[in-house]
Design brief:
The complex is a heterodimer of chains A (1003) and B (118).
Chain A lengths: L14 E10 L2 E7 L3 H7 L6 E2 L6 E2 L12 E4 L6 E5 L10 E4 L13 H4 L8 H5 L7 H12 L13 E13 L3 H11 L5 E4 L16 E2 L4 H13 L4 E4 L2 E7 L3 E7 L14 E13 L3 E3 L12 E3 H9 L8 E6 L3 H11 L3 E7 L7 H8 L4 E2 L2 E7 L6 E7 L6 E9 L2 E5 L2 E3 L2 H5 L4 E4 L4 E4 L6 E3 L9 H18 L12 E2 L25 E3 L4 E2 H9 L5 H8 L12 H12 L3 H4 L13 H5 L16 H6 L3 E5 L2 E6 L7 H14 L2 E4 L4 E6 L3 H8 L12 E7 L5 E11 L2 E6 L4 H14 L7 E4 L4 E7 L3 H8 L14 E7 L2 E7 L7 E7 L3 H11 L6 E3 L1 H11 L33 H4 L10 E8 L11 E3 L10 E11 L4 E9 L8 E5 L4 E7 L14
Parallel strand pairs in A: 1-7, 8-9, 8-14, 9-11, 14-27, 16-23, 17-18, 17-23, 18-19, 33-43
Antiparallel strand pairs in A: 1-2, 3-4, 5-6, 5-7, 10-28, 12-13, 13-14, 15-24, 20-21, 21-22, 25-26, 29-30, 31-32, 33-39, 34-37, 34-38, 35-36, 36-37, 39-42, 40-41, 41-42, 44-47, 44-49, 45-46, 46-47, 48-49
Chain B lengths: L2 E4 L3 E4 L4 E5 L13 H8 L8 E7 L7 E7 L5 E6 L7 H8 L7 H5 L8
Antiparallel strand pairs in B: 1-2, 3-4, 4-5, 5-6
The chains are: A alpha+beta (1003), B alpha+beta (118).
Amino acid sequence: MSGQSFRIRDRGRIDRQKPVRFRFDGTTYGGYEGDTLASALLANGVHLVGRSFKYHRPRGILGAGSEEPNALIQLGAGNRTEPNLRATQIEIFDGLQAESQNRWPCLKYDIGAINSVFHRLLPSGFYYKTFMWPASLWMTYEHVIRNAAGLGKAPEDRDPDRYEKMHAHADVLIVGGGPAGLAAALAASKTGARVILMEETADWGGALLSESDSSVAGKEPARWAAETVAELEAMPEVTLVKRCTVTGYYDHNYLTALERVSDHLGAAPEHTPRQRLWKIRAKRVVLATGALERPLVFSDNDRPGVMLSSAVRTYINRYGVLPGRKVVIFTNNDDAYRTALAIEEAHGKVVAIVDARRDVRGELADAVSDKGITVYENSGIVSVQGRNKVAGVEVMELAPDGSSALGTVKALECDLVAMSGGWNPTVHLFSQAKGKLAWNDELAAFVPGTASQALASAGACNGTFALAEVLKEGMKLGAEAAREAGFKGRAPAAPKSSEPEQGALRPLWIAPGKAKLGRKGKHFVDFQNDVTAADVKLAAREGYRSVEHLKRYTTTGMGTDQGKTSNVNALAILSDTLAAEIPATGTTTFRPPYTPATIGAYTGRNVGKLFEPVRKTRIDEWARAHGAKFEHVGQWMRAWYFPKPGETFRQAIDREVKAVRDSVGILDASTLGKIDIQGPDAAEFLNRIYTNAWLKLGVGRCRYGLMLKEDGMVMDDGVTTRIGENHFHMTTTTGGAANVLSWLEEWHQTEWPHLKVFFTSVTEQWSVVAVNGPKSRALLEKLCSGIDFSAEAFPFMSMKDGTVAGIPAKIYRISFTGELSFEVNVPARHGLALWEALMEAGKEFDITPYGTETMHVLRAEKGFIIVGQETDGTVTPLDLGMDWIVSKQKPDFIGKRSLERASMAAEDRKQLVGLLTEDPNVVLPEGGHVVEHLKPQPPMDMLGHVTSSYYSPNCGRSIAMALIKGGHKRHGETLHVPLEDKLVKVTVTEPRFFDLEGKRIDG
Amino acid sequence: MLQIPCPWCGPRDDNEFHYGGEAHIARPVKASELSDAEWAEYLFLKQNPKGPFTERWSHSAGCRRWFNVVRNTATDEIIEIYPMGELPKSPQGIKAYETNWRRESAAQKNAKAGASDK
């Protein structure tokens, strides 16, 4: 463990009483609680933390916050490992394990760095230009490229951590806990408004924590921040959340935020999630997201030890770390002078300030001059020495237009370069909210223009940088937001503040090098994606003139940082190359999330058993106890089959299928959709919804109905029973129940509101047992008294009330098997009792419980369709050969006019047929393609596909249904189903295979 | 996520709602008199304007009631909500309704006079 030799004795907000040990790339280091991984590494003199994406160049820490493009870290191990985390955001804890990324075999000697030597071969659009052909090899290229260019590694197994979601409503949501955000929160909360204030870092105060040369209300700024937070915390309607990044700004002031609840603790304490996803609906939003410093684009500006000037100040004042002892500052504005002074105060040495401007005057220039710091005006850094760490720079004068360097070369020795190219207001959320940006010439940056949602921008994110103005704006907009949310109150006076006054900047988009751009050294624009100024210019010359195209062609602004430090520089260089104004060039679209978010947080608790609700019938318990295998049908769990010990799937199904036709079987049909329909116009309504006639259906009688969509395609089917003059009981498919109810409601509410009819879902009010087979009558007679089950008294398609095993029941004589069949409906809670009574009474008939698979085989033997299996939204009743159910007399029903279209009668439509395989033991796979003319290999002209296919023990052979072109006229034809391993010859038949005369229905 | 003011339940997140597409497409009552092309005007052709649009929503995970909305498709601003069977009252809604080509379509004219204009 090496010492923290770059630690400053008397500065920083770290807790020196709480030392922390952590590992980076296998070496143990020391830091303190309150450090980020970046600050702790810098305290130990570690700058080299990663390799770049394309050229594998050594990279160091650039920034101090979430904008960091370089210092991407793989954190933790095993299933908890997480890639691409920014070292500048990771709070260290005892035992933290971090690894650098994108290097092999190790960070210092990386083989991929060879790319850097061949950089001429890797221009912008390299992948597009090189790996275009042959297309079939792309998979190989991709594999190699991904290995060479990958960022971190994803964990391979389930994430063991717990995540939560939180829904919140706010009168005023304030994003950012810096001076503007704190002021806004104070002003808004004093009106009594419900305020939520969110801050990305672990501490309140934002930029205030990085300064030592300013004061607020006569206090150190950090102290004012702490006192303000204490005041806010005492207010009941204020919620303060830190370590929380507001990541997305969506419609109607809906925002998402990711709170890192326990990432800084190593392991989450009990009952605490790792992260929490906030979903917030706010009446008003105040954005106080600050600003991000721009790098300067100069030759080899990516060497470890080249940092943002503001980051250097943050490391000194917030973390008590001096990132370098001999510092050269390169700037085009006054702010970096504050850094110079902070370095000197921390006993570092500022070798020189290299300033792109001339005649720099003002308070800060004077202070620097008092310290005896050399300032090179109208100058730029033309080269950087050192590979894994800055060792020195060369400085030259700038030509009047800034495009080239002149005069003598001054060589300066240093171990750190602090650069400042000006500031970009953090307008990401403003833009996500569809706000329009405006270019501000004075700041040379985009600022919020016209907002499209109920929001305001305060402080640096609004282009307001002077502390006094920031505080005033925060107070004003905070109070205003509360008033707009319906509260009363005026903005409190802003506290008095002081800070050094700053002059104007001089935009410098590319600092010239000694040679022509792109020849010697690299001017990086986008550090994370290794995009240089020369790349941007090349892309522009090649015609990529739109920023959106530039982004995709050069990859600038992509990756995990989404160009936070690079975008404005890139588009300024593009504009310059095109000789266009920057605002005319525009920006790329800002999209959520602001920083990468863990997918786990979006999933929250919706994993495993909580992923989706599971619906179970009352008989589920019995089926489980009796060894049933289950299948999912929508959200329902349905018993699939009931294997006896030692039975295979096929043996169990064959046994169940035969038992139903030979004696009696029972099926739990409780999941069928059931809708109670009442009202004087119920019959008229059904008449319009179904294709067949309903007005004259007698009370106590059932009818099968087919529902179409208005385009004439089959939507659902089921049996509906007239229970009373104005009362119907509709059944739907299991999966279609909710849709059908919505469908009925839609037509009733939107088209025929004058019809007096009401719909109620009663699916879960009834338990249903389908009793099927020649012995079903005998079985029910044993359990029921007072019901005449004779075929004459209780005909097919009728319903009777009565009791079964003493339970009040509605018994429907309907059949989905073609057998004598009764569907017994009892109040749901009696489902299990009914089932057990049937099983007991059925012993003498060797009663067989069966599941959905047997149900499918039985119905297929009879050629009954299943909506969604024989149909797919492109199938009409005519295609199914079900013309008989489509009324010719009714003036109207949904879908009627569409069925009259000529194309609906076309002979080559796909129509439902039966298929019999040449070898009766071959069971076709469902979905198998049916062809007429075989070719040696695919593609072959497809006639259609197999929709249902089973082995039918009652037919003693396999049976299948298929939708094939012109099928109705193909009966008797021989067709083929080519499979992966064989060809199956099939004969087309009508889609019915058993009991063709329908004799079994009466038992 | 939009926040939609359900006339019965108040403002709710849009994931409680089901979108019903363009409003005021009256269903032809003598559909057999329409040519296939005219029937298609009713069945398939939908407006997709940039700006105020009359559309239908159903509070499917709430009260299950349908209602009409005038929404600006460019900004997602909800300008007006009004019951099924009624016409918009806001100037933007009235304009969106009246300037819709459908008002002159054969399918619309085939609908019962004074039909609900769903």
